[in-house]
Design brief:
alpha+beta, 2 domains, nine-stranded antiparallel sheet, six-stranded mixed sheet, 9 helices, 27 strands
Amino acid sequence: MNQSAVIYSSLRDAEAGRELGDLVRERFGTAPPDAVIVFASPDNDLPALLKEFDATCRPGSMAGCSSAGEFTSGIAGTGLTCAIAFRSSEMRFALAVGRGVRSDPVGAAEQFVAAFKGEDAPEFEHRSALVLTDALAGFADRLVDELTVQTGGTYKFFGGGAGDNARFVRTNVFAGTDVLEDAVVGLEILSSKPIGLGVEHGWMPASGPMRVTEAEGMRVSSIDGAPAIEAFELHAAATGQIFEAADPLPFFLHNVLGIDTPGGFKLRVPLSVEADGSLLFAAEVPEGATMSIMRTSSDSAVAATASATQTALSQLGDHKPQVALFFDCVATRLRMGEGFNLELDALREELGGAGFAGCNTHGQIARGDRQFTGFHNCTAVVCVFPE
């Protein structure tokens, strides 16, 4: 039997942790949860919050991250803490941690996978893992690739990059009561029932194909042999948009880069313009990639969330949904404003009576069968757990 509790607190620091723990105890009684997933506003005293939460409800495993907007099936906003708690005889959870992502993403992936128990538990047919990484450490694409290689492609991965309300100063992940930087944390989830995963972004090419001719990490220096900024300046002029290099984010939120891959366009959000005309992005952009400048609309974003949810639900077979995790980009929230609630409405409608919790992240992680792979921006990721 699977049990879950979707909870939130608008309090801060230790008081938020205490309220969350009390809510779990109200739902589960004296039996502690097997696992808890926590998304907390970075404005909290995160160690105090987590320690009080742990002391109040004593979860078997706890993982989470700082966020850039928090939501449940009942509330959405910023400055909140939300969580999902699980008790289950049909799922088994293990806390996984990898450190030193920035200097050694391969080693961090090895540390992470070392906690997995799937090889010793053949009775659980379905293998998945929540993956939350320090977004500012970088190498998220490489990290997900390594996790896939080291697990032989037998796991679904979902999650995202920790947020700090788009300040891009400090992003944290949580392993138990430890608040970490330059690390990846998560939960291995072994299940006797299928867990659904859907991913969709709703963006379409608005320019012709171009090539990234010089790039290193998150910096793109040239596109089609010219300074990278020129591609976006020319696109703004061609489409009648205003582009100001001194304040480019309003333009960038509506005009992201799409990397053409065999599975579809993988999105990257530009963040700033450097003095030499290069652009800094929210995630790595590979040199030599074929790319387009992309466009979307609020209606497309809402439709993408509905489609991702439908995909996840279709993977449950005959089982009904009980609870879901939802991740979408902070850039999506900033672009849509109050309209972001329409995405949550679409998720809520598709899930029927199942609850959900999640957060806006600095990048999203999704890797599953016949789906986009790796680390994304501006993409809706839905993970559905069965009853």
